[in-house]
Write a structure and sequence with these properties.
two-stranded antiparallel ribbon; alpha/beta; 4-stranded parallel sheet
């Protein structure tokens, strides 16, 4: 059924997405998927690796995700550049966030790709 391991991963991601869609509320016959999107990166020009600096024993980005869990949403997504995935993936998983890697230099495109990838119909963008 699956030619490659990537096919299995893609199938599981689609299954998870469809399952989440079924759990969302229906308004006027349309499925609504509300997402909280947090954008983070590692390379800050003024304070290197500030997202990973400790705050109360956990990295700052984790504390932000922890606070954002209080916002009612169907899905929570941490959007980051590809070079930050290895640092952020364990933290995102621990905080209950999906992770998405996008272009390093184009934050707006990263948000747009997240919205398209997860089928988000409404979203809240956490300020940086």
């Amino acid at each position: 059924m699956f030619a490659h391991a990537n096919d299995i991963g893609e199938f599981l991601n689609k299954f998870r997405f469809l399952f989440r869609c079924l759990l969302t509320q229906t308004i006027i016959g349309e499925l609504v998927l509300l997402a909280v999107i947090l954008q983070a990166r590692i390379d800050s020009s003024r304070l290197k690796s500030k997202s990973l600096l400790p705050l109360g024993g956990k990295p700052l980005v984790f504390r932000v995700m922890e606070a954002l869990r209080r916002v009612p949403a169907d899905i929570r997504i941490l959007a980051c550049p590809q070079d930050a995935v290895s640092c952020f993936a364990p933290l995102a998983a621990e905080a209950g966030f999906e992770i998405f890697a996008g272009p390093k230099e184009d934050v707006l495109k990263r948000y747009c790709l997240v919205i398209r990838r997860f089928g988000v119909t409404r979203f809240i963008i956490s300020p940086r």
